[in-house]
UniProtKB/TrEMBL annotation:
Organism for this UniProt entry: Flavobacterium saliperosum
Entries under PANTHER family matching the protein: HISTIDINE--TRNA LIGASE, HISTIDYL-TRNA SYNTHETASE
Family, per entry: Belongs to the class-II aminoacyl-tRNA synthetase family.
Localization: Cytoplasm
Catalytic activity: tRNA(His) + L-histidine + ATP = L-histidyl-tRNA(His) + AMP + diphosphate + H(+)
Record-linked Gene3D superfamilies: Anticodon-binding domain (3.40.50.800), Bira Bifunctional Protein, Domain 2 (3.30.930.10)
Molecular function GO terms recorded: ATP binding; histidine-tRNA ligase activity
Chief subcellular location: cytoplasm
Protein name: Histidine--tRNA ligase
Gene transcribed to yield this protein: hisS
Keyword field: Aminoacyl-tRNA synthetase, ATP-binding, Cytoplasm, Ligase, Nucleotide-binding, Protein biosynthesis
Assembly behavior: Homodimer.
Length: 455
């Protein structure tokens, strides 16, 4: 029989790992609610038509398709089968797909429930998503996203608050040196217009978004392959060495985009967001204007964000998001602007682990293990266990009347700090022998004393 395994890009999680993940979840959730966001959940899978065409050509390829139930080939056209036309064949044999992110399902939710929602609507969602990507460090095929979005308002104060939300979460996690990068898709549209490549905007932004992965030469090569001219690349050259403070960068952009109304609108929006964040201040994060930031998702129309981990850690982005003015429009609801951000839980986990930022208490197990000496002793122990648990103290009893050495060894392997010994003498005197497994010290106490010591 073959050794059991799991698909590449997925993981099992041990109790300690789950405890650490839950610690991150709890901090993100607490901050979401502190900022006024409300929770929703959407199905694991959506109708294919809900997802396809919303993430660009590259995104569509990474969506996991679900085969129709039953004889899924019965409705497939013979010509598609004979020609091995996978694109047309897929639409006939698969009507559903696993969600690629939480934003598009959220847009569908807003349209479907628009008569029940009070706008502006601030929602958060913490659920897994799936992408048929090539697995590598920090990149998985199944992973959690933690999203916060506001729909029904065009106010740029929402962008300011979302930057503050990023900073609040990372401050709560004790993570210093995080860089929140910001740009605006209107600026990218303006640049494409200025260099004469407006008809290649998607190709331009998709290639530019890969700068940190394939470098300047790789980006230029891809742009040329997509039909963007050499002359256009010469005009865009300043972007690859765009340095200075945020104010200096905005000044340079204003000069570069002076002939583009769309581009100047983007500059104006960036100025508002950056000026107000500078006035309000951030606790542990830094804000940086990155003109090469494109975020290769087609639905962004305004401000875009990407969060870089501290430079001491070799990790990709740990968060991202942006403004989308027409996302719900593709589902029939016009004039519903939204803006949102996402936290990459799995990458944040790896960063905290590498920097040793998880508190020791996160993975703490039961506070004490009651040893099992037999039926009468176990019943006496269980009566105490009930009272301790009611007091909020994590305790348990070894289930079998096994050798005492084995029970002590179990406590040691589990990292349980105390053992509680209950024998005939303890029962007769209504007491408990509490043993500190680190020091070896042992003393007899009452139940009330036991509660206080274990607290």
């Amino acid at each position: 029989m073959a050794k059991p395994s799991i698909p590449k890009g997925t993981r099992d999680f041990s109790p300690a790992e789950v405890a650490k993940r839950n610690y991150i979840f709890s901090i993100i959730k607490a901050n979401f609610e502190k900022f006024g966001f409300q929770p929703i959940e959407t199905p694991t899978f959506e109708n294919s038509e809900t997802l396809m065409g919303k993430y660009g050509e590259e995104g569509d390829r990474l969506i996991f398709k679900i085969l129709n139930s039953g004889d899924y080939l019965s409705k497939a056209k013979d010509t598609f089968l004979a020609n091995k036309d996978s694109v047309k064949l897929t639409s006939q044999i698969s009507e559903k797909a696993l969600r690629y992110d939480l934003t598009v399902p959220f847009a569908r939710y807003v349209v479907q429930h628009q008569n029940e929602i009070e706008f502006p609507f601030k929602r958060y969602q913490i659920q897994p998503v799936w992408r048929a990507d090539r697995p590598q460090k920090g990149r998985f095929r199944e992973f959690y996203q933690c999203d916060a979005d506001v729909v029904g308002s065009t106010s740029l104060w929402q962008e300011v608050e979302l930057v503050q939300l990023y900073d609040s979460v990372f401050s709560s996690l004790g993570l210093k040196g995080v860089t929140i990068k910001i740009n605006n898709r209107k600026i990218l549209s303006g640049i494409a217009e200025v260099i004469g490549a407006s008809d290649k905007l998607i190709d331009f932004t998709v290639a530019l978004d890969k700068l940190d992965k394939i470098g300047e030469d790789g980006v230029k090569k891809e742009m040329l392959e997509k039909g963007i001219s050499e002359a256009a690349l010469e005009k865009v050259q300043p972007l690859f060495n765009f340095t200075g403070t945020i104010s200096e960068k905005i000044e340079k952009l204003s000069a570069l985009l002076s002939s583009s109304a769309e581009g100047m609108k983007g500059v104006e929006e960036l100025q508002f967001i950056c000026d107000n964040i500078t006035s309000l201040g951030l606790e542990k994060s830094e804000l940086d204007l990155d003109v090469t930031l494109a975020r290769g998702l087609n639905y962004y129309t305004g401000a875009i964000f990407e969060v870089a981990a501290p430079k001491t850690v070799a990790m990709g982005s740990i968060g991202g998001g942006g403004r989308y003015d027409d996302l719900t429009g593709i589902f029939g609801l016009k004039n519903m602007s939204g803006v949102g951000i996402s936290f990459g839980l799995d990458r944040i986990y790896l960063v905290l682990e590498e920097l040793n930022l998880f508190p020791e208490t996160v993975t703490s197990t039961s506070k004490a293990l009651f040893l099992n000496f037999g039926q009468e002793e176990a019943l006496y122990a269980m009566q105490a266990i009930m009272q301790l648990r009611k007091a909020g103290i994590k305790v348990e009893m070894y289930p079998d009347n096994a050798k005492i050495g084995k029970q002590f060894q179990h406590a040691d392997k589990r990292g349980i700090p105390f053992a509680i010994i209950v024998g005939g003498d303890e029962i007769a005197n209504n007491q408990y022998a509490l043993k500190d497994l680190a020091s070896g010290e042992q003393k007899k106490v009452s139940l009330d004393e036991l509660k206080e010591l274990l607290k």
